[in-house]
Amino acid sequence: MIRVVLADDHPIWRDGVRNDLGEGFSVVGEAGSADEAIAAIRATSPDLVVCDLHMPGGGGIRVARACAEQTRIVMLTVSEQERDLLDAVAAGAIGYLVKSTPGPELRAALVRAAAGEPVFSPALAALVLGEFRRMSKTATGSNPLSEREREVLLLVARGHTYREIGEQLYIAEKTVENHVRNILGKLHLSRKQELIRYAVEHGLE
Percent of the chain scored above 90 by pLDDT? Predict the structure, then answer.
């Protein structure tokens, strides 16, 4: 049973997601603001948090920054903006799904997220891949993406599971997980690189 906290400032949305989850999930807490979500997570230690990006008190970004080390957080939002997606991942979210995701696909993605796999709506996967490609070109010599990490990233962005990636690349599922952990670590470092890029693009270097 996957223990879930639902966070959204619209109670009717939380009701809908709870109904979509069905068997295999147990909703242990609900919240209508970032403050309430952080409190619910700390009180219940859930396996997974399904969180709206835009809520009072700082939204899902604040929740991810505060709690991503404690639990796995998936944004479920109407926003398909690249900036929102990248900010959510950089804040620590393990997934980013749009609210139009059909119920069966949502359940399957959340099961994977609870197991530690990054999940993204297919329409947004290309954005993630493009950003990582940009990072791999701009990363410093001390911390670029390796060829294997790029291969893993490509398959993750296309929605493959760790097991499927391991089978395709002839490596262990655990090795895939380690590669993804390394890639996500490098994504956090990219925030500094984005600042550098901004400075260069705006003549601030």
Answer: 39
